[in-house]
């Protein structure tokens, strides 16, 4: 088993205790071990971040861009090694892991370009002989907490913009999947990132949570994960002047109207629902179908789902990977059992897959449920697994009502040939991301990303919109004589 060190203060450091990282395709197989840092180690990471910020905020944006460009090149050169580790610790297919690796390089390249631009606006001033402008500045030391489902691209989405704008970071990867984040940190380190600008804290959250969240030098926290944890962090920050960017849960719906291209819609919904075994915040988990085409669409959908091949991510034939951990597998199975008890009908799947080589893995068959009502818990609660629920409605207005019948508001899609319905849906869907005749997943680096309601906070990720979180605005007025 490989032993990996973590990056603190520009050096790769070990610890007295270690955390084993397991392969969800076979939990008997260790992938690597990483340091289990202590609370004192966390405080030292913030010490280094404070010093790193003092240097980095004064570093030329062109030098930051050079480092990012070099780091992106290193990630592309190391794509096979990195993707293999993403698959090993997370379980997703090599195709998915390769795409995630290359997309993380895209984030670095995009924000390298953005770093070269000035962040500000020239303003008119009512006073004569004055020239006034705004400029954006880094805010300081930011804590980054990332989840296990996208262990490389989520750190890239968060770290690239905040580092590009001159902030420093203490980064806590998920305990289940720290290896991917260490690859990202190594690329930046090898590209010449100054010591202390990025510090990676690997450790057991319960043992270091207080040191992570309560350090007085934190000016911002960006978190992706469950609503329960996100809300706990938000409450902890209630009396502190600390920005919180939260990308939380979702219960994303796709609407299939009666005029839709049904085969195309079925393929798109399956891709959006079962990619990464449904472990995406933007995964489609509810499908709302106009009643005249409900039976035909259901037949097409179930046929598509039953073509999926469950297996190890390293197998090129696999199209549905294991879940990320035994805990996640058991949670999904419990949700399925509860849905059946409440009257849902299993149209396909519905159980764990323990056949042959999958006996020691975290596999759940891709599942479609019918006879689901608005009162069924699985209609409202996030499952985060390969589970899709179907519901028939009578008209477009009822479909929109069903989509919005949720405390969440991350992503939604509509399938239709009617341009008026497409635009009405975009206007009326209460969510941050809307797709027409496409999947709820797959938002590119330059597109603002984030949800409404319980799906997240007002600070969006990606594109230029993220600058609202990672920078502060200063207004400067210059009187030039007279």
Topology:
Blueprint: E1 2-3, E2 6-8, E3 11-13, E4 18-23, E5 26-35, H1 39-56, H2 61-77, H3 79-90, H4 94-115, E6 120-123, E7 130-138, E8 141-145, H5 153-164, E9 168-172, H6 178-190, E10 198-200, H7 205-214, E11 218-224, H8 227-236, E12 243-247, E13 252-256, H9 262-274, E14 284-290, H10 294-305, H11 326-341, E15 345-348, E16 367-370, H12 377-380, E17 387-393, H13 396-403, E18 411-415, H14 419-428, E19 433-436, H15 467-470, E20 471-479
Parallel strand pairs: 1-5, 8-9, 8-11, 9-10, 11-12, 13-14, 13-18, 14-17, 16-17, 18-19
Antiparallel strand pairs: 2-3, 4-5, 6-7, 7-20, 15-16
Helix pairs in contact: 1-7, 2-4, 2-6, 3-4, 3-6, 4-5, 9-10
Tell me the helix content: 25-40%
Alpha plus pi helix count: 15
Shape: globular
Number of strands: 20
Spatial order of the strands in the main sheet? 15-16-17-14-13-18-19
């Amino acid at each position: 088993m490989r032993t990996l060190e973590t990056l603190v203060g520009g050096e790769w450091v070990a610890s007295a205790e270690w955390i084993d990282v397991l392969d969800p395709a076979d939990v008997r197989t260790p992938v690597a071990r990483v340091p289990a840092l202590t609370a004192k180690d966390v405080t030292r990471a913030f010490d280094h971040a404070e010093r790193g910020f003092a240097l980095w905020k004064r570093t030329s944006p062109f030098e930051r861009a050079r480092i990012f460009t070099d780091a992106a090149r290193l990630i592309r050169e190391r794509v096979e090694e990195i993707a293999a580790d993403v698959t090993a610790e997370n379980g997703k297919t090599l195709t998915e892991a390769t795409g995630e690796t290359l997309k993380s390089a895209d984030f670095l390249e995009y924000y390298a370009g953005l770093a070269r631009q000035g962040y500000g606006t020239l303003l008119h001033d009512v006073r004569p002989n004055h020239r006034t402008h705004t400029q954006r500045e880094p805010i300081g030391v930011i804590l980054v907490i990332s989840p296990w489902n996208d262990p490389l691209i989520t750190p890239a989405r968060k770290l690239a913009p905040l580092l590009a704008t001159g902030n420093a970071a203490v980064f806590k990867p998920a305990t289940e999947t720290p290896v991917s984040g260490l690859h990202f940190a190594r690329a930046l380190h090898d590209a010449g990132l100054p010591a202390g600008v990025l510090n990676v804290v690997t450790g057991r959250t319960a043992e270091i949570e207080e040191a992570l969240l309560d350090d007085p030098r934190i000016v911002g926290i960006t978190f992706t994960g469950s609503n329960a944890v996100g809300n706990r962090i938000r409450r902890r920050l209630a009396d502190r002047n600390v920005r919180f960017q939260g990308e939380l849960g979702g219960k994303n719906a796709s609407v299939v109207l009666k005029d839709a291209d049904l085969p195309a819609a079925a393929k798109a919904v399956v891709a959006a629902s079962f990619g990464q075994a449904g472990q995406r915040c933007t995964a489609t988990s509810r499908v709302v179908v106009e009643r005249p085409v409900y039976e035909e669409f259901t037949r097409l959908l179930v046929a598509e789902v039953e073509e999926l091949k469950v297996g190890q991510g390293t197998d090129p034939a696999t199209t549905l990977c294991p879940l990320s951990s035994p805990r996640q597998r058991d949670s999904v199975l419990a949700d399925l059992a509860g849905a059946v008890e409440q009257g849902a009908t299993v149209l396909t799947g519905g159980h764990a897959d323990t056949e042959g080589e999958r006996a020691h893995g975290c596999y759940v068959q891709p599942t479609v449920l019918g006879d689901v009502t608005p009162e069924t818990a699985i209609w409202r609660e996030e499952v985060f697994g390969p589970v899709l629920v179907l519901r028939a409605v009578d008209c477009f207005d009822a479909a929109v009502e069903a989509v919005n019948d949720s405390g969440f508001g991350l992503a939604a899609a509509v399938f239709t040939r009617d341009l008026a319905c497409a635009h009405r849906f975009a206007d009326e869907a209460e969510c941050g991301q809307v797709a027409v005749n496409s999947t709820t997943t797959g938002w590119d680096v330059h597109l603002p990303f984030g949800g409404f309601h319980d799906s997240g906070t007002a600070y969006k990720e990606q594109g230029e919109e993220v600058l609202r979180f990672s920078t502060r605005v200063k207004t400067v007025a210059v009187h030039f004589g007279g």
